[in-house]
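Risk register update: the risk of archive-format incompatibility is retired. Evidence:
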Amino acid sequence: MTEKTIKAFVAEQNQKRLLTPGPAALCEANVAGLAPFFGRGDAAYDMLETEVLDNLKKLSGHVHVARFQGSATLAIEVAVRNFFGGRVVVINSGYYAERLWSFCETLKAVGRIDHLDVTSVNNIGEIHGTYDWVAACYVETSCALKLDIDALHSLKTRTGAKLFLDATASIGLEDKHDVADVIAYSSCKGLFGLTGACFVAFNDMPETQETSFYLNLYTHLEKKTTGPYHILGSMRGILRDYAAYRQAVLNNKAAFMKGFADYLTLPTYQQPLLCTHIACHLEVEEGDYVFYTPRSPLRGSIICHLGEVHLKDKAQGDIFQGLKIVPLV
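Archived output:
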């Protein structure tokens, strides 16, 4: 493809407007980064993978990152099974935190977690005692809630624990991922890559010996299976100009917050960049829109802000102009 052909292809595909939390709108860099790749003996791919993973480590502030095919859910389960043990407390913020909790319950049932507590996101300041791990979902997409990362860091320090973050909806967009010892995330939300890759980032190697071949972190660190080669290709150009793509999300979030100010349900400090909950429904006046349907029941709507990422810092929230407010009943 020539550059002009890629531009025309991307423009045509983006006629469908996504108000969902990932994947983002298709970007020219996603397509231009694709090529034939192989994981062994391919010097060009080795250079690509090193560049992408180095950029991801800089973005989150971690020493190591493992990459493999799959969703963020797989990365979270791999992280839990390779790092968790002893006394664990999970911060319950909604559907995705409950999924994290279920992975911990599985380990507790086989004796790999000795003690498991679960507490509401509203009770973080009331947790005392000693723990080995604090686990939380930094941004809970199911209700468009951002947790207080400073409160989680304080909890980690107060309990002598290590901190795990489900960073699926926060990576790249929110600050201070480096306060966590381990994080898990995917390629297709705030990193704006194609779907299909997931990552576990960490500082110290795991001490747990996971018996499952595919769920063992070393399987992926040692590249014993086919990796997400083409997904990393779709991310390279994005990460080279990441600030400009990220600015599209900031611009869209600001435009939406202003346009729907009367319907916001959360204060500014709890607002994630990825998405916004509003106390109304939305209908389409014209155009091909795809809305987000949360996995848990919730009154109102959640609108996500990745639909104009392809416009980079020129995005102005025009995607919202075709929406009509329908009051709740």
